[in-house]
Each structure stands twice: as structure tokens, then as C-alpha cells.
UniProtKB/TrEMBL annotation:
Keywords for the protein's UniProt record, in alphabetical order: Cell membrane, Membrane, Transmembrane, Transmembrane helix, Transport
One Gene Ontology cellular component annotation held by this UniProt entry: plasma membrane
Gene source species: Litchfieldia salsa
The name this protein goes by in its record: Carbohydrate ABC transporter membrane protein 1, CUT1 family
UniProt domain ABC transmembrane type-1: residue ranges: 70-283
Amino acid sequence: MSTRALKQNATGYLFISPFIIGFLAFTFIPIIASLYFSFTKYNMFGSPQWIGLENYEKMFTGDPRYWQSLKVTLIYVAAGVPLRLGFALMVAMILNTASKAVGLYRSLFYLPSLIGGSVAVAIMWRNIFGDEGIINLLLVFIGVPDVRWFGDPTAALWMLIFLSVWQFGSSMLIFLAGLKSIPVTYYEAASVDGANYFQKFTKITFPMLTPVILFNTIMQTIAAFMTFVPAFIISKGTGGPLDGTLLYSLYLFIQGFEFFNMGYASAMAWIMLIIVGILTAIIFYSSKFWVHYESEGGK
């Protein structure tokens, strides 16, 4: 290799070295460390003690709250992801037909996604649906008994789900891009054949959007499993009432940073990775039965 080639390679390595150093320091090494800690008893104040599979055994056989957190999270994902995607698609279709000020509307609808997962919005949500919040004041005003939205485990979980639906902006923009990519000639040909709006949606819009739906489903499923801030704020960090809002990420935080069971929290994180990986693989496998690509039409 010539001296000139060596200098060019060195220059390239120099430019990418910040990324490599950052990846090793903040991603790769912590991942390997967490895998090691998951087999230890570690509280961050002493040396980790190797205990083998004890953390994983405790998780599956000796910790009812773990199974409660997994149950709550699966309900949250199963209900929240379809609702968020459905609402995002509906808004995207409305914006796709708008011709005036569509950029303004797009920005306004995307705004909740920028602030939707913030601490401020979670606090606002808790105040709105609190015992003396505006919703209960309106109910009392019209003669309806007030509701303890965060006093019942089921109601509190649905408040979390509705808060997640409010953050539909990113999915909406992706759906809107997918709608813009569908050729108008398809709809014109369908109109000539006498197709109504529902037929156009089921025969053209939905099939053409299935790759976008697949992408949004995977991304929103992963994001739902990582939800932490709303559950922490609404339950005041406890996962209550009666562990009704004890999402997986919240319980992982409680174990790691309140009980200082960092080894156990690391084991929980790796099990979450496996669960999300399995769900993603299932979604990918199922896609061959319902996802349609435009190139397949010419086969």
C-alpha cells in the first residue's frame, strides 16, 4: 500500500474516530457490562458478586411484580399501538386531501409528538384528570358523579394509553409521505370503474400503505416498550394504583435506581430485549401474508 493511500485511510479513520470512540464508550461497552452485571449481585457501591442465573430465576419464579409489569406493558402495547396508528392514519388521510395550509396543519399535528412524552405534558395530563381536575369539574357541572381516573388500576392504565395516542405525529408524517407516493392515476381509474370511497381505500390505499404500516408498527411497538416518563409522573414513581401503571421500564428503573438492584435491573433489560426481538421477528414473519409491494403486481 502506497504512502498516499495510507494517508487517505488515516484521514478517513480520523474523521470517523469520534463516532467510534462514542459508540465504544456509550453503547458497546455498557451493553457488554450490563450483560455481565445481569449474572451478578451488584448495587453500584461495591464489587459485583457472581451469582449465575439467580437474577433470571428470581424474575420468573419469585417476583410477582415482574409479571405484573410485563402484563401491564403488553396491554399498553396491544391497545396503544393500534390506536395510535389508526388515529395517525386518519389524520394523514385528512391532510392528504387538504390543499390549503397543509404545511401549517402538518406542523400543528406533529407538535404533540415533540412534547407529548415530556414531563410537563405528563404533569398536565395528571392535573386535567386528577380528582379536582377540569374533567371532573365538567362532569360535576353537568350532574355526573366525578371519577377517580388515577384511583382505579384499569382507568389509570387507559389514561396512559390515551396519552400515548396523543403522540401520533411522527407516524402521521410517515403515513402522509406514503399517501403522497400513491399515484393519482390509480384513484382516477377506480373512479372510472365506479368505485366508491370505501372500495378505493380497501383496494388501493390500504394495500399500497402496508409497507408503511409495517414500518410504523415495528417502530411504535419498540417505542411503547420503552415508555417511562408518563408512567413515572402519573403514578408518582410507584406504578400505582395497585401496580396498574407499572410499565416494564418503570419497574426496571425502580429496581435499578431505587432498590439499587443493578444486577437484577440488567437482567430485566436483557429479557426486554429478547421480548422485543421476538415480537419484531413475529411481525416481520407475518408481513409476508399482509404486506404488499408495488413490484409484486408485475409478477
